[in-house]
Amino acid sequence: MRTSEIRSRWLDYFAANDHEIRPSVSLVSPEPSILFTVAGMVPFIPYILGTEEAPWPRAASVQKCIRTNDIDNVGITTRHGTFFQMNGNFSFGDYFKEGAISYAWGLLTGSREEGGYGLDGDRLWMTIWEKDQVSLDYWTREIGVPSERIQLLPFKDISWSTGQPGPAGSCCEIHYDRGPAYGPDGGPAVDTQGDRFLEIWNLVFDEFLRGEGKGHDFELLGKLDQTAIDTGAGLERLAFIMQDKPNMYEIDEVFPVIKAAEELSGKVYGRGSAGPEAGEAYHDDVRMRVVADHVRSALMLICDGVRPGNDGRGYVLRRLIRRAVRSMRLLGFDEAAMPTLLTVSKDAMKASYPELEAGWSTISEVAYGEEDAFRRTLAAGTTILDTAVASAKKEAGRSVRPLVSGKSAFELHDTYGFPIDLTLEMAAEQGVDVDESAFRSLMNEQKERARADARAKKTGHADIRVFRELEKEMGGGSTFLGYTESSADATVAGILVDGVPQSVVTAPAEVEVVLDRTPFYAEMGGQLADQGTIRLADGGTVEVNDVQAPVKGLHVHRGTLTEGTIAVGEKAFAQIDSARRLAIARAHTSTHMVHKALHEIVSDNATQAGSENSPSRMRFDFRHGSALASDQISGIEERVNARLSEDLAVTDEVMDIDAARAAGAMALFGEKYGKKVRVVSIGGDWSKELCAGTHVPSTGHIGRIAVLGESSIGSGVRRIDALVGEGAYGYQAKEHALVSQLSTMVGGRPDDLPERVESLMTRLKNAEKRLATAEQAALSARTAGIVSEAVRLGDVRLASADLGTVGSADAVRSLVLDARSRLGDAEPAVVAAGAVVGSRPVVVVATNAGARDQGIRAGALVRTAAQVLGGGGGGKDDLAQGGGQNPDALDEALRAVAQQIQA
User: What is the pTM of this model?
Assistant: First the structure.
């Protein structure tokens, strides 16, 4: 049975049993606290936690998931994959244990003719909580499973919770006995690795409220008011059982990529089935499985809008592609592999995900571009690594094994995107170790800084649970009035100082204030937070400089209590800075208009990747594989300004999310939306976006925009910067003044300025050419002297010179080639010349055939010289060039070349 049919049978079965069938949400998690959708239950977390009311009593889905925490196990175990699909069924206060068990048994053992999976019930084993008498009785008395196939475990071994106080429950795991070929008998309790008794479905019974504690060490405080069912059955696991395959990599949606890797590399898959003792054949099998898994994961991530980058989701995608490329390299294939592998993966997956075909142009462009970039990175990183290895060897001497520093490895990773495992591999090939511990320490420091920054932005010094408690006490958070009001009467609902709740605070103090109702906009969706003042009934004043929403719907006003006191329960008057809000609103509406114009002029695939709307300025990030042409940039500016002059109405409407999408409303990538959404429209149907931000009532309130430029901010992501309203007018006034000033300087009218500047540039270029010619003639005149002063080092003649300051590296190269030609081929000869070009030292080395026959390579000599100069370099055996940071070391660098020739 094909994987796509296993998937469709799941959905059909639960639809027939009155479940709401929900489509898979994006791999970009709708839960803000995690990067990706890592489990099938993620979209349903608010309903399980009880923070939102479920729209339906029961639901089912097949959810796309990405999980990379065990990426090192990919290809090694039978069941670890970074991309997987999780079948799930859910109940929110509807059926509980008996119903979940009945549905699971019915689908697993039901006949294939009637839509079931047709598994042999005698091969199914269960593990349940030792105190779960309800499940035990139902399995044995109602289903008829013998008690010897039901194994009882302590709560800590078969339970689920969120990891913090909240819902928790025991589980019922259903395992499939794959037979004696996969391990000894005895059930899941004996086969703890799950090779023979493979877990295929986990039923989670959420019925308890848990207290504080770590891991599974927590107290059960009591029963939940409403129970929930959350189940997960791995689609890939079901597939390799029902397709009779030994692992998930050999199912129909994955194995075609392994076959393609075989054809490209010339390796044969399966020769390493005996395990690590099979040696290189085993490692080749693992590499092909890694390729198959990572290519599929990259395919699905790009389809869902993720683009390669240096942090967050982008870094995960980049790492997956680069691990796949590196694995192909280790298989002996050094050419571009993605055009073949990605196409094969798409063809294997499109039956389940037809959107892959529709988005193929963009998906392939992103993946191929990233592979090409990484192959260039390998070339550049290799040069840097060679320098680090040479330095390590020099410092270690002969008695100690050389060690590349953790700092060097981190720089390779962080600056050049060179993966640590590749650094380890290539260093080992040269007999050098890497201080991996120091590298990991630097990586952890970087990650912790990033986490701390992210936490501090939203929650300040406070634990998120403080805000959750406050939101519950308020019965739903703050009421936002800012769409229609710039000020409002309110009551102080909470105060925090350094993350600790307070009942009363006296000035001066930095405070976080929660009001029951507020006109202040909390930073969200690229729009900066409002600023303003909160005036207290008893005379206190809070100057608000930031507003965040650490918990959905809870506005936390951060600022300084400048005078008086503030107390919980006190009446207050909240007033935003209206001029600042209007300037931000102009920018936000302009962002929507730039997005629409981008689609009209460039492509519908140029989708939003982020934005920032600040007073009189906007920044718009979008996904696109190449720089915009100048006429496209000017076209976007002209289109937006034309629509601004029409004074289009800007309206908003709250509607059902499905209706909003049907109306063509665009959604912000990675943003979480509820069932009801706010749609902002400009000019009727011209622009429609899901947006919670504030806007001007019509485009005439904006005035103009002035696009400052467009640039790359990462692989596949571009940025447009623009000034808005007063900022645009001010910019244009400065431009006008500058044009007038330049016109006066060159002596002409503004209309003549381009022609006058072009004439000046032509004259300048001609002068530079004459100067370069004169310099080259002067250097050529020195060539004869340099050749005549050549010294003999054994059998080799070396002509070496410090040329001082020259205009270009090309001039140095020309002299070196001329000198080599004059030395001829009668005997081995080397020419080395150094110079300072633009304050930086440059070294060029050339060798003739006789020198190369003696093993003297120009590239090796340049690397030696460049190391002395504090830089790097490389090239061919006959001609190479390098440079560095220290021009004062040129003489020493040239001496190092001579010493290496003599060695």
Answer: 0.61
